[in-house]
Amino acid sequence: MRTNFGSTRRLFLFGSLATFLSACANKFRKYDGPEVTRLQMFKGQRKLYLYNNSKVLKSYDFDLGFAPVGHKQFEGDGKTPEGAYTIDKRNPNSLFHLSVGISYPNEADIAYAKERGRKPGGEIFIHGAQRPGIDPIKPDWTAGCIAVTNWEIEEIYAMVRDGTPIDIFP
């Protein structure tokens, strides 16, 4: 009889664990609040703001690339762009949980790098957290992206639409 109780208990625990993990795995949230009309990011303060017109809807702290000071100019420089861009894509299968893309490089970024015989780089995203055991745990660890927590990127992913302007300040 005890064996039967133990088996039932194990099945219950495994079933509960599976239910919990499947709920955690749903990283796609719904958002039905005010439209996000602009993002503003202040690199020096490590603050990202989501606005509906002039009202701040949400704010987030973040990490940057391994060389955070200055405007991104070249592939591999570890910098995050500065200037006016847009959110231009989303990646539901990001290695960093979820991600939304920033329209870097623009024409001026491309021309600047080309004049110097270099590539401007690209694939700049706002994305989720470090992957345990793979990425070093330290501030400003990305290759030039903006990193928030997984919970926060789920909110951002749900709230921000492609085409939304983002201003990135030093």
How many domain modules?
1
Low-confidence stretches: 8-23
Structural class: alpha+beta
Architecture per CATH nomenclature, i.e. the level-2 architecture: Beta Barrel
Helix-strand pattern: HEEEEEHEEHE
Q: How large, in whole angstroms, is the Cα Rg?
A: 20 Å
**Biggest beta sheet attributes:** 8 strands, mixed
Write a brief caption for the model.
The chain has 170 residues and is an alpha+beta fold. Helices cover 25% and strands 25% of the residues. The protein has 3 helices and 8 strands.
Description:
- Helices cover 25% and strands 25% of the residues.
- The chain has a single domain (34-169), classed as L,D-transpeptidase catalytic domain-like.
- It has helices at residues 2-25, 107-115, 150-159, and strands at 38-42, 47-52, 55-61, 83-91, 99-102, 124-127, 146-147, 165-169.
- The longest helix has 24 residues, at 2-25.
- The protein is α+β, with helices and mostly antiparallel strands and 170 residues long.
- The protein has an 8-stranded mixed sheet with strand order 3-2-1-8-4-5-6-7.
From the structure above, extract its key features.
single chain; 170 residues; alpha+beta; L,D-transpeptidase catalytic domain-like
